[in-house]
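Components:
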Amino acid sequence: MVKMSKHLINPRTVGRLCIYRRVLNQLSSQGTKRLFSRDLASMAGVSPSQVRQDLMNVPTNGTPQNGYAVKELAEAVVTCLGTAQSSSVVLLGAGHLGQALLHYFQATQPRMAMSAVFEINPNMVGKHLHDVPVWDIATLDQYVRSAQVRIAILALPAEEAQPATDRLVAAGVTSILNFTPVRLNAPAHVFVENNDIQMSLERVAFYAAAHTKEKVQA
Amino acid sequence: MVKMSKHLINPRTVGRLCIYRRVLNQLSSQGTKRLFSRDLASMAGVSPSQVRQDLMNVPTNGTPQNGYAVKELAEAVVTCLGTAQSSSVVLLGAGHLGQALLHYFQATQPRMAMSAVFEINPNMVGKHLHDVPVWDIATLDQYVRSAQVRIAILALPAEEAQPATDRLVAAGVTSILNFTPVRLNAPAHVFVENNDIQMSLERVAFYAAAHTKEKVQA
DNA sequence: TAGATTGTTAATCGATTAACAATC
DNA sequence: TAGATTGTTAATCGATTAACAATC
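Structure:
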């Protein structure tokens, strides 16, 4: 009621809250009852200050004497992040990367539902991949509209990324996970997360080379 | 000689330079001769100021009248980023994600060489995937040492990530691309790039849900 | 109580953006 | 020349870290 979603948490904090959730769920399943911010920090690879700062977005139950109750804190973080099972997800592109992402998604994200894959290759259309139907990308707009899809994952060729984005946005998608190396143009109300694997590789290579150079000089 | 690698460029700038390289190469192959910082900025999805700031790390050839010569700038960025073909790359884990990454790597990174894949599953050991041999992970340390591998890609189960990292670092790896959701502990001289696909998904889901909530209230 | 930790505010740090003299 | 852009420095912005009163 009181502008619950007005103070939209920034992407970095959301990312860390996801890490905390994973750590807390694991600890909870291992039977750990309580922890301090410094414990969560070391397991998440951040500073204790950062943990406490991030947890200001979450209704916490910490006390100076006992720290946080693991189970309750995990639940609070889950509530804060939202379950998002309300909306379904579509995947664009069923090439090697798309198929791997689909498998990964189905294996690790039981709380979200991948509802359809869209492909241009007619050999794949009509089949199923990991129990998800593959449909002709020509039917994308209609599907997104009728199923009220809000989340799309892009794993298609670079040159198709922007046209596909335009269609998705026009059809009502508000959140896009982009695995292509293209920087997408999208309206401000649409959230775009770039996961540029090619860039990741290039960056790692850069620092490996830089390190070698330094060693040679030392 | 004069501390060429002393001012190690920070990861964000390196990332953007990779984007500039891609854009410039594409423009060059399309026959574009010259551009201004504002053109490169709009194609890379950043501000013109940012472009010029980033290009301070690169020996540039820009002039107020004509902007930059595309081909020369592309070459300068390539030189700055380094080719890194000196070192070979190993992949740990040949599951769905690992295989997809291998395919992606072989298809898009001809300038780097993937030299071996390591797996624990005996059914895969001894085979080839995309012309790359799959070896028993027990032989990892010896291989990394003898081939002087400096770059490793992690695509194995979460619980194996930290032990594998320890072995890689001990054997001389200096740069790790981590596709597991685990935050790795590694010495400061080792560069670790986290590409957490699970987190990407969760973040996209968060903003989709947040957006829906806002709309409901508006 | 004494001591350590939380929740939160203040200070610092780093990165992006703006400004502007030099210049073609 | 006049005008626009570069290279670079200064200002702003945002995020992380430090500090500290409240507290159990």
